[in-house]
Inverse folding.
């Protein structure tokens, strides 16, 4: 079994809980459907967003330079990181330079990708995640299981137990309003004490040099407005050319993510506060190399709405942690084989290729096509198992000849018909674990055709 | 108009579900189509390609082209296999023969609605039937509007089933969720695959279906395997069998 299949098996061992996970995310998907259907030009918007992103990726170098020039003019300091190590070092340098000890951070998948929290902790700096879901999993020392809903794998009772331990809420309390209030009080103190506030970046506008951050909790603003130093962390692919492009994406993002018309807060950061400092750290970490891979470059159009996770029938029934990569679900499965240090080679196979992901994608990434393509490339790169490659070679030999094919079919029917059940359903028969084999017919279609057409 | 049609019966139908092939053949003949079944045919190669070994499937693709050259149309009772020929036969040399074959390969339902423009089909199937919209036929072959897209609602499958006397089509909670077959996915990810199948079945049961139908027997083979293991009364039936009833 592949790593993902093993984790999925564990996830499915508690079937009622798996059903709850599936239904929760399906509800998000149906909300998305309603929100999308309310926009007459939805499909045209997707096309427009896709084209803007393609334009941006095609002119990435120029747009990044333009962005740097504009941002610098605005008074921000722009820094560049080639990889995760350099990124982490840059962040630590900024924090040390400002002699800061208290750092808050709103949601950023990039910092997760770079392992920044763990790196800073080793250097004695504890970063407080201020997104509620992120804070919950930070308390529990877990990874996000979803890129938009990081604690979606947890039930409110489990969150209540965690808050009881970490925040002193009443034992057994699981009322979401009560728990959220406790988190607000806790985070308020962290906001007020913070000397450095970090954010992720949803969009970086080349024309204006500003960065745009979308949140529902206002936690990016709470951090940035209270702390003298603000750091915005972005991957190179967050660039969009013009301010007027932004509306296309803000209309798509929240609708496709959660079914809201727009995120509660859409914050535009342009220049530092008086006596403050503003840093924008732009990270490559494998993205430029990824862009040179023609079949897979378009995966960098992703705006991290999480729509493909919510719609994916496999994700809903295996959970985000089963993917073993920072970005789980269909989009993560086409990023991981290129970018994951762990390899992620099982992930393109963790899909039934149903194509729902490509249909919901707001920037029209052909996710299912890339999953298919990765399967081919992983085989050609000999990153799949030897046994499987040999088996496929044999199958190709059988299926390319009428005689060999007919023989194999007859053998199959014979085996299912005459082998005793215990032999037929040995553990080797993975199909038979949860399903019966088909009832073998008296003759194949081909045999019937020959007989009835006297051939 | 008389068409010269090549009938492609996918490997798993040939081997395990000959009645589906027979229904397809009889249905087409009843509608006045001249059907030829090339005897040397094997498989479209999808099991290999789906597993990441399309280069091992090239010989199989060429064999397929060899079997099916020279027809006006090639028709198959499978959305998934039709898609394989139309979309993934791009790794072999694109001769005129190959290009013609790829352009004229049809899934059965769309051949009936788009080419034969069947109206007033004489069939009777007095049962409650749920439609499992197999993914490749739905989202790739576009046999019906998909729930994710904001588009005009249509269905070539319903267009045909609506012509069947006595049939009652049941509406499902999730009208186009994947059943979890996914070719080799069914054995690479056996637990998720089986869970998806059980959920798909439960949706049909909740709405009182007697039959699950589809234009793809492979999905139905997976669902039937689960139904029989669970000893459930719900039955599966290929759409060709309903249309030919």
């Amino acid at each position: 079994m592949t790593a993902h299949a093993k984790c999925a098996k564990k996830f499915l061992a508690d079937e009622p809980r798996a059903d709850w996970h599936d239904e929760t995310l399906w509800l998000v998907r149906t909300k998305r459907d309603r929100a999308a259907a309310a926009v007459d030009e939805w499909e045209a918007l997707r096309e427009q967003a896709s084209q803007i992103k393609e334009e941006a990726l095609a002119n990435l170098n120029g747009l990044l330079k333009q962005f740097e020039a504009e941002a610098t003019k605005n008074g921000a300091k722009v820094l560049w990181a080639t990889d995760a190590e350099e990124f982490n070092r840059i962040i630590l340098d900024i924090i040390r330079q400002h002699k800061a000890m208290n750092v808050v951070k709103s949601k950023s998948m990039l910092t997760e990708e770079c392992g920044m929290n763990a790196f800073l902790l080793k250097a004695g700096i504890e970063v407080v995640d201020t997104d509620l879901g992120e804070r919950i999993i930070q308390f529990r020392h877990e990874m996000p299981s979803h890129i938009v809903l990081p604690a979606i794998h947890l039930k409110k009772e489990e969150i209540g137990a965690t808050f009881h331990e970490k925040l002193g809420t009443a034992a057994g309390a699981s009322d979401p309003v009560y728990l959220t209030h406790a988190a607000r009080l806790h985070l308020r103190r962290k906001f007020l004490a913070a000397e450095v506030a970090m954010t992720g970046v949803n969009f970086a506008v080349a024309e204006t040099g500003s960065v745009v951050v979308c949140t529902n909790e206002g936690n990016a603003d709470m951090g940035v407005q209270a702390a003298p130093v603000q750091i915005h962390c972005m991957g190179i692919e967050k660039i969009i050319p013009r301010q007027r492009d932004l509306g296309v994406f803000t209309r798509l993002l929240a609708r496709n993510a959660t079914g809201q018309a727009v995120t509660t807060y859409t914050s535009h950061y342009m220049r530092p506060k008086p006596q403050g400092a503003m840093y924008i750290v732009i990270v490559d970490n494998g993205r430029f190399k990824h862009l040179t891979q023609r079949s897979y470059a378009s995966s960098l159009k992703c705006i991290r709405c999480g729509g493909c996770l919510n719609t994916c029938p496999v994700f809903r029934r295996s959970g985000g942690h089963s993917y073993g990569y920072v970005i789980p679900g269909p989009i993560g499965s086409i990023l991981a084989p290129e970018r994951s240090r762990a390899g992620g080679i099982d992930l393109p196979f963790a899909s039934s290729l149903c194509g729902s992901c490509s249909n919901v994608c707001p920037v029209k990434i052909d996710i299912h096509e890339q999953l298919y393509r990765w399967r081919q490339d992983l085989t050609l790169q000999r990153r799949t198992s030897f046994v499987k490659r040999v088996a496929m070679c044999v199958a190709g030999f059988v299926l390319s000849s009428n005689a060999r094919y007919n023989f194999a079919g007859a053998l199959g029917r014979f085996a299912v018909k005459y082998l005793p059940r215990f032999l037929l359903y040995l553990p080797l028969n993975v199909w038979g674990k949860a399903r019966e084999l088909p009832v073998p017919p008296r003759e194949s279609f081909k045999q019937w055709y020959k007989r009835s057409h006297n051939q | 108009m008389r068409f010269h049609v090549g009938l492609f019966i996918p490997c798993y139908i040939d081997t395990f579900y000959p009645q589906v092939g027979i229904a397809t053949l009889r249905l087409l003949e009843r509608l006045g189509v001249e059907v030829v079944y090339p005897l040397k045919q094997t498989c479209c190669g999808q099991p290999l390609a789906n597993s990441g070994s399309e280069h091992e499937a090239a010989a199989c693709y060429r064999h397929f082209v060899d079997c099916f050259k020279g027809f006006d149309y090639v028709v198959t009772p499978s959305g998934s296999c039709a898609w394989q020929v139309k979309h993934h036969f791009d790794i072999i040399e694109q001769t005129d023969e190959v290009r013609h074959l790829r352009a004229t390969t049809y899934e059965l339902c769309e051949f009936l609605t788009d080419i034969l423009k069947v109206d007033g089909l004489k069939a009777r199937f007095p049962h409650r039937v749920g439609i499992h919209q197999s993914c490749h036929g739905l989202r790739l072959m576009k046999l019906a509007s998909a729930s994710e897209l904001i588009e005009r609602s249509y269905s070539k499958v319903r267009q045909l089933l609506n012509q069947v006397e006595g049939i009652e089509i049941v509406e499902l909670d999730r009208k186009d969720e994947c059943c979890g077959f996914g070719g080799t996915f069914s054995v690479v990810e056996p637990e998720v695959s089986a869970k998806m199948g059980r959920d798909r079945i439960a949706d049909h049961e909740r709405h009182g279906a007697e039959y699950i139908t589809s234009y793809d027997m492979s999905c139905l083979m997976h669902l039937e395997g689960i139904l029989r293991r669970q000893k459930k009364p719900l039955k599966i039936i290929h759409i060709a069998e309903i249309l030919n009833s």
